[in-house]
Structures are given as structure tokens and as C-alpha cells.
Amino acid sequence: MRLTSAIRAPRRAPLLQVAKSAIATVAAWLVAGWLIQGPPPVFAAIAALLVVQPSLNQSFAKAIERSVGVIVGVAIASGLGMVFGDATWVVLVAIIVALIVPWAARVTAGTANQVAISAVLVLALGATTPDYAVDRILETIIGAIIGMVVHIVMVPPVAVTPAHEAVDRVGEELARSLERLADALTTQQTRPQIEELMLTVRLLRPMVVDADEAIATARDSLSLNPRARRYRRELGEVEQLLALFGPIVTQTIGMTRAVYDHYDASLATEPAVLAIADQLRRAAHDIRLDLRRAPRSGGAEPTATIPALTAPLQLTAPSATNWIVVGSLMEDLRRIHDQLSEGNP
């Protein structure tokens, strides 16, 4: 593994996220320093920095996680410091206790780390009086609140558009896969071409996974978001689209697999296969139609076009050479038809 891959992200965080983190950190330092006299307000600045997350839901969770971790960590350090003094070995004991207590309580990894870090900071700064402990807890709460306020005021991000784009990519690639399969059925193919067809259609599965993750991120970005109401319907439509496409992806891969396993040059002249290819192209049309029907924030009105996919075909018996592949294609085509019919009542 390259060293750079361990420290570099595939893409930069939005500049707005960086600006919010900087403003929240500076504001927390200034406000906490003004309200609470004493050491520099390190806890407030760290809390604000950690609280500003990509979504409000994550920020709220981080604020709770940070506050609870600091309270427990400061309590452990202050208790040990008041009992045993400021000897070096007390710091080591505090670290062990600060790791065991969260483990016993089964708290999250972030909270557990915060308990240990807070305990070490309190002892390292050399103040373990009750007043110091209370001040650090208040300081942390101030930083967390300021981080949340800055995040809310500076336009909380909504990740519905990336989710929509991810599902659009799935739908468009699914339509192209059906068209490629139709072309393969109507023109003679070499073995390398059939293998390429199979490898290409398999790329649909990771695309579906990416789209599902994008939807989960979008759903999280709407939690506690004051702008969520405007986007919930759009996200719901995006989720329905992916739910519609998922089974069709499975059937498309299955149809391609049937052709891959049983391909014969005579398929291109089989009347039943030619009819199936026509239906595959119609299915591709209807998938793109579903993409255009989905509502988009700030976009054009959904398209209202009649679906092109007809009722399942009634075919005569195929030749003895191709009856297996034709039967398999027909069954998957029937399932695609049923799936698209549910999406286009």
C-alpha cells in the first residue's frame, strides 16, 4: 500500500466545511475564554472542531459523544489527582482507568478515546481541583453548543443531489446494459465480445452499492436539518427508483450470464430472440423514462411519456439448439416487465 493512500482522501472536503470548522473553533475559544477565566480554553476549541461534522445528525451525535467523554475523563482525572496528588505515575493510572471504564460501560470508540484524552489533558495541565474540573466541563459544553450553532447558521449541507446522481448512473448503465445485450443477441459475437459483455454488466452491482451508500448519506444529511422538508419527497423518489432498479440489475446480469453460458451464432437468426431483443430495447427506454419522471429540486418538470414495454410475448417453440437460453431470457424478461409495470402503474 502506498503511503499517500493512507493519509490522502479521494476527494477534498467542501470548502464550506473547512470554513465552518475554523469559525466554530475561533468563536469557541473567544467565548469560552471570556466566560471562564483561567487556562486557555483548549477544551472548548477542540469540542467545537470535533462537533462540526458533514451533517447535523452527525454533529449532534459528536456533541453528545464529546461532552460525555470530557465529563467522565475530567471526573476520573480530578478524582485520582485529589486522592494521589500530581505524581507521574498517577497519569499512567488515569490512562488505564480511563480506558477500562468506557470499555466496561460499552460506550462508542469516540467516547472512549475522549475519556482517555480528557483525563490526560487535565493531569498534564496540572490542575485537579473541583473548580477546575467544573470549568473544563462547562468549557466543553460551550464549545459543543457553539459548534452546533455555527453548523446550523451556515447552511447545513443536503446530500440529496449526489444520491440522485448516483441512482441516475445506475439507471443509465442498466439501460445501456440491456441495449448491449440486445445488440449481442441480434448480431453475431466472438467469444471475447461475449466475455466483455459479461464483465461489463457485473459493474452494475458495485454501482448499486455506491448508490445505496449515497442514499444513506443523504438521509443522514436531512436528520435534524431545518431544510429537510423540501427534500424528503425527492429523496423518497430516489429510494424508490433504486428499489425498482435493484431486481432488474439482478435479472439483467442473469440474462447476460445465460447468453454467456449458452451462446451460439444461430441466436442472431432465431425469431424468438429477435423479439426478445426488441423487448430489451423497450425496457431500456422505460428505465430512462423512470429516470426522467423522478422529481428534482430546481430541475425540469418530470417527463410524462407512455412506457414502451409491451405485455410479455407469446412465442413459438425455439430451435433445439437455443431453447435453454430463450427460456431463460423469457423468464427474466417477464420479471423485468413485472418490475417496470409496478413502477409505471
Overall description:
By secondary structure, the protein is mainly alpha-helical. 75% of the residues lie in helices and 0% in strands. The chain has 13 helices and no strands. The chain is elongated, with a radius of gyration of 30 Å.
Topology:
Elements: H1 3-7, H2 15-35, H3 42-51, H4 56-84, H5 88-105, H6 109-124, H7 130-153, H8 160-186, H9 191-201, H10 204-222, H11 228-262, H12 271-293, H13 323-343
Helix pairs in contact: 2-3, 2-7, 3-4, 3-7, 4-5, 4-6, 4-7, 5-6, 8-9, 8-10, 8-11, 8-12, 9-11, 10-11, 11-13, 12-13
In short, what is this structure?
The protein is mostly helical and 345 residues long. The protein is 75% helix and 0% strand.
Uncertain spans: 299-304
- How many individual helices? 13
Distance between the termini: 51 Å
Class computed from helices, strands and strand pairing: mainly alpha
What's the total number of strands? 0
Describe the sheet with the most strands. Answer: none
Q: What's the helix-strand series?
A: HHHHHHHHHHHHH
Computed CA radius of gyration, to the nearest angstrom: 30 Å
Query: Strand content of the residues, in percent?
Result: under 5%
Shape: elongated
Give the proportion of residues in helices. Answer: over 70%
| Whole-number mean pLDDT | 80
